[in-house]
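INPUT
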Amino acid sequence: MKKGILERLDAGEVVIGDGGYVIALERRGYVKAGHWTPEAAVEHPDAVKQIHREFLRAGADVIQTFTFYSSDDKLKLSGNVTDITAKQINEAACDIAREVANEGGALVAGGVSQTPVYRDSSSESEVKAIFKKQLDVFVKKNVDFLIVEYFEHVAEAEWAVQVLKTTGKPVAATLCISPEGDIDMVSPGDCAVRLVKAGAQIVGINCHLDPLTCVRTVKLMKEGLERARLKAHLMVQPLGFHTPECNHKGYLSLPEFPFALETRAMTRWDMQRYAREAYNVGIRYIGGCCGFEPYHIRALSEELAQERGFLPPASAQHEMWGKGLEMHTKPWVRARARREYWENLLLASGRPKCPSMATPQD
Amino acid sequence: MKKGILERLDAGEVVIGDGGYVIALERRGYVKAGHWTPEAAVEHPDAVKQIHREFLRAGADVIQTFTFYSSDDKLKLSGNVTDITAKQINEAACDIAREVANEGGALVAGGVSQTPVYRDSSSESEVKAIFKKQLDVFVKKNVDFLIVEYFEHVAEAEWAVQVLKTTGKPVAATLCISPEGDIDMVSPGDCAVRLVKAGAQIVGINCHLDPLTCVRTVKLMKEGLERARLKAHLMVQPLGFHTPECNHKGYLSLPEFPFALETRAMTRWDMQRYAREAYNVGIRYIGGCCGFEPYHIRALSEELAQERGFLPPASAQHEMWGKGLEMHTKPWVRARARREYWENLLLASGRPKCPSMATPQD
Amino acid sequence: MKKGILERLDAGEVVIGDGGYVIALERRGYVKAGHWTPEAAVEHPDAVKQIHREFLRAGADVIQTFTFYSSDDKLKLSGNVTDITAKQINEAACDIAREVANEGGALVAGGVSQTPVYRDSSSESEVKAIFKKQLDVFVKKNVDFLIVEYFEHVAEAEWAVQVLKTTGKPVAATLCISPEGDIDMVSPGDCAVRLVKAGAQIVGINCHLDPLTCVRTVKLMKEGLERARLKAHLMVQPLGFHTPECNHKGYLSLPEFPFALETRAMTRWDMQRYAREAYNVGIRYIGGCCGFEPYHIRALSEELAQERGFLPPASAQHEMWGKGLEMHTKPWVRARARREYWENLLLASGRPKCPSMATPQD
Amino acid sequence: MKKGILERLDAGEVVIGDGGYVIALERRGYVKAGHWTPEAAVEHPDAVKQIHREFLRAGADVIQTFTFYSSDDKLKLSGNVTDITAKQINEAACDIAREVANEGGALVAGGVSQTPVYRDSSSESEVKAIFKKQLDVFVKKNVDFLIVEYFEHVAEAEWAVQVLKTTGKPVAATLCISPEGDIDMVSPGDCAVRLVKAGAQIVGINCHLDPLTCVRTVKLMKEGLERARLKAHLMVQPLGFHTPECNHKGYLSLPEFPFALETRAMTRWDMQRYAREAYNVGIRYIGGCCGFEPYHIRALSEELAQERGFLPPASAQHEMWGKGLEMHTKPWVRARARREYWENLLLASGRPKCPSMATPQD
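OUTPUT
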């Protein structure tokens, strides 16, 4: 019997999350950018299973179901499938996630995200009904816990937490906001307090901004909880891209989104630094979102191997800090088999006509 | 019955190659960098099958067997496996490639690369014996054609061509050299002439340098053949990275190799430009090497869709030139749903402390 | 009879300041970097006169005496001169400034800066005695007004204002602080209030940071004064360098200071933007500090020519927005003779191995 | 009696040239960009004298007369003056140059540049008549030697050398060409041979490209002369700007020309490297052109102080390799008082939205 998410966190364990699916599967040929719907769970289950498995091998303790934007209205709008329902996709996604999770000791998490309805009508009953419908599948398929993620308005996230709490399953809630606060300018500290009061046991940040910025926002949430004398576990699942010039609207404003983000991709060394910073701030659920590939998750697992007590399976194919280069035939490549080299490298872009920063558009 | 590689090229068809395996599978967690041995063909066949399948869906007409560095001496040196022989790996790799190739109309190609023995002893008989041993598996498994690839010395590549020709199967030969010539300063034109005289029906360039540089080198090969009144098909399988500052020693000299190449990754738009340039030069076998992900191969297929007469399966999840963004909710993202936008974008690196070019080390 | 500085500002006129002397004269060969003492006023008066004259021709309404770091202790420490006293230098500098100022309608301003004594002992009487000694020369030479400039501690600047006020001459006070506040974390708004209460009629910012940052800080000062229902004229004399990564310690922390600041130099177009921003914020005394060359001051005069009602003499050798290129023989250079071209140009550094931002050292 | 230019070079001395005038005086407010005519020699003689003097103090052994574009047709075209003739300007310029040169031991050089007539008609007699007219002033004013400079066609430069040789004065000839050759694709080696055969005793390169590129071209000239068994002194007076992306058309093609070249300006440390490279190639007349400020010339003098046996006057205000920072109050600034620091610094541009390289326009 696996330990649950709260048991792990209560025991002080570091929980590694998985990476994002839509960007990675877009590049593999299974998701359409702009639409981002997950019909591949039904149409190409092997491809979804494979990437789940790669995250698992990289050390992920949680497999999130591949159910992003999987509601019938979204599917209809995108026009990508006509013969498959959201329910079919969601059920298939739960089954796939469970199959892979059971290959290791991972937990399955089902997630809900912000709704177009909230922005249009702000009707509490309508919004809650949507979450309830998604929840039904997660309950039927018995996921291990639930994640409220990718919310720009803390008010809507509170409603989601309230709905998901009814199941009795643990609920984590992550907003996609910046250190300045949510889109209504509620501060990160206040957001955290409201989410915990709504019933979330785990709170934090996901998507929209780069790792160190997201860690900074979670730190502000933590301070808010401390001021309010509340307790909750902390979680972070940031972008795998550098976004230094982004404002609170996040990386959708970058001119490179979504088809030219290559140069912004983080290295494994960037990821180790992120994992350490997150750990030092007190975050114990550390994962990734859009832009995270399996080797990024492995880097988190490796940075925190001592704290966790073990290396992930995929580290059999990776030595820390480039040590695998020691046997290289070129002496100048061998010279790179050390930590200081990779930690201090200021990598060149190879694009002399391109700048370092863009002007966000919005 | 599939048409062979020469039938296709003779008929004027554009043949799309697959992408590189070792870098992509390193990031997925199945190959150890620095060692680059392909034991995953035996240990994780599903992972190898999956990436083959992604290239196939992206439009690849050729699946290369995942047999890079698969010789017993290399395996022993790396120490990654003790209970599997090179023969086992090579046979498994052939079977996997065949299985996936048959899911579409793709051909299977077996490849041989330069040997350490050549550099150490330059013994013709020893070097040829190594090629012969690798060839035995390809013959047994009945690959469709053979590729001599990743040679820095045209002299050694000639020997490889001579050995492979004995099978009667078509032979392609690609060197990893720059427009300046091979490592012994034999010009690209002379290299091409020698390879064709040795028996290659297809000649060109692979790896080491970025696409436009490799296309330039193939153009020099073509001109050499014309001067010598020889005929051969042209092929190119370059890096998927920008390497503007690299000299003829290639990207191993870059300080970022192999663990910090992220910023240099080409976009799909870079790839379309490459495909067009290659086509314009007269190259008809157009593929990729290290750094190519499935969506890069798809970009080649899409750029040349009109010439080929069809789009690849994975284009069901991709609209040309960002058109899939037309339905995006944010107006500034919708404004990106057009060709001029992506063709002219000078993407920012998001790394203000990093330069554009490195100083090659060697 | 010239109008005084307060008459001009009270009448709503835009007053253009001059540029910095020590960096410019270092490059011309008359000031030693690191020491920055002004013995050239005695040793090479023609060189000093010439640069004063260039600023005057560029539109400067104020000529500041070249007396920076001109105290006997500083001169002794530097060892640059043994036979000249600070008094001799200061008197010569006043005479030179007056001679050039009278060639146009400019005013002469004498300035005092922060003292090492303040940092070491914080003795009010000692610090004030130093300001008094400097003041004696300015009174004897009858400068038109006085400037308290380059103070990191508002507390010390208050003392300087108090001393200078005793002369009855107008007193301007500019701190070299950031939007975060002075070095003791007194906010810009509070700094402004304290300086005005101490007797300054003009307050603002000089040196240490780039123009737009300094304008931002002056805006905060203005808001502080408004909150306190105080009135004063606003002034800004920023660096002529881009310093986006600098913290409140300013450009001395940049690795490039002082011998490799070339790439950070602002263009004339940057300067026009700065002049406009400063004007829009309500600043009416707009000049420059280190890094300003004569053509930078001319750019300020040109941007505000309509508000001022005239162009400066040096504009006889300059047409706005590159219009002088209209007669160029090369068509592609002629195409640059327009405002949109220069306003939107993202100029390249010509240094592909150099980054965009440094890491401040301190 | 001063030693002549050939005596100095024959004796193996290093001759330091002066810097460019038009860009420097444009920034000081005395030259109009695009027009570049030198009426300031009559209208503002003190300003011209001052910059001559600064170059002299920086170590220049030659003062070039400020007579660029000073012909009646150019003056008329520009419309900058109506009451002054080219003859008046040229005579005034000679007098000013002589006055300053005599303050030190410097020589006065008069120069002629390429003519619009050559491009339009290629009439030898017309072109030669123009050179003859300019020469008359130089003879009357008895300059020490003559410089044929800024020619893109070696054919026209030959004519100029032939005309200037008639005076019996030494003649130097520098082309503004790239390592690829002149604009008619005559190689640098062949150009040098033709210039020497026409009568030039000194040959080399000036303007258009950055120092290391110009040194490379002079090296090719030297090799051409050696192959032809001819002897001549070598000279180089490059741009003071980095132009890595420029082709043979030079920096006029850069989008930043002429009003946004700031970021490309070379540092004093760049200049020392240039002086050393030029010296190592065998060049003994080493100066500058557009973009050189007095401190750049001083850097050449300092780098070659040991070879020359003395430091220039302006080095009294400058210590080698930043040593003047040793007495700085901030420890992190003091740490910069050493050669390795400045030699290895990769200076940041402070412009995160700007690229490293532009696309030349022409």
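end of record. Chain A has a mean pLDDT of 96.
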